[in-house]
């Protein structure tokens, strides 16, 4: 049985989502397809009540329904293009 893998990133706000879609989404999707990953682009904070900066959200990725069911989860910051 193949292990399920997820590639996850976070892009919040119209500008950042638009930039990601324009500049990176196609390449990330091609990479994910080639290597057997499901691509998740989160567009809302995982914990909207968090008082820390948004980059701390990556530590909460295991709380996202569906993602926690994967055998392997890889997080990449969305500004890594």
Mean pLDDT: 91
Largest sheet at a glance?
3 strands, parallel
For the CA atoms, what is the radius of gyration? Answer: 13 Å
| Topology, number of strands | 3
- β content, as a range? 15-25%
Helix content: 25-40%
Strand order of the largest sheet: 2-1-3
Count of DSSP-assigned helices: 2
* Structural shape: flat
Structural class: alpha/beta
The secondary-structure element order is EHHEE
Question: How many domains?
Answer: 1
- Low-pLDDT stretches are none
How far the N terminus sits from the C terminus, by CA atoms, comes to: 32 Å
Describe the structure.
By secondary structure, this protein is an alpha/beta fold. It has one domain (5-75). The chain has two helices and three strands; from the N terminus they run βααββ. A three-stranded parallel β-sheet has the order 2-1-3, with helices on one face. 14% of the residues are buried.
Task: Please specify the SSE layout and strand pairing.
Layout: E1 5-10, H1 14-23, H2 25-35, E2 37-42, E3 72-75
Parallel strand pairs: 1-2, 1-3
Short summary:
The protein has 81 residues and is α/β, with parallel strands linked by helices. 26% of the residues lie in helices and 20% in strands.
Q: What are the main properties of this structure?
A:
81 residues, alpha/beta, three-stranded parallel sheet, 2 helices, 26% helix, flat
């Amino acid at each position: 049985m193949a292990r399920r893998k997820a590639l996850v990133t976070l892009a919040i706000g119209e500008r950042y989502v638009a930039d990601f879609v324009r500049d990176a989404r196609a390449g990330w999707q091609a990479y994910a397809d080639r290597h057997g990953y499901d691509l998740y682009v989160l567009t809302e904070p995982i914990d909207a009540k968090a008082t820390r900066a948004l980059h701390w959200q990556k530590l909460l990725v295991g709380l996202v329904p569906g993602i926690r069911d994967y055998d392997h989860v890889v997080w990449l910051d969305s500004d890594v293009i």
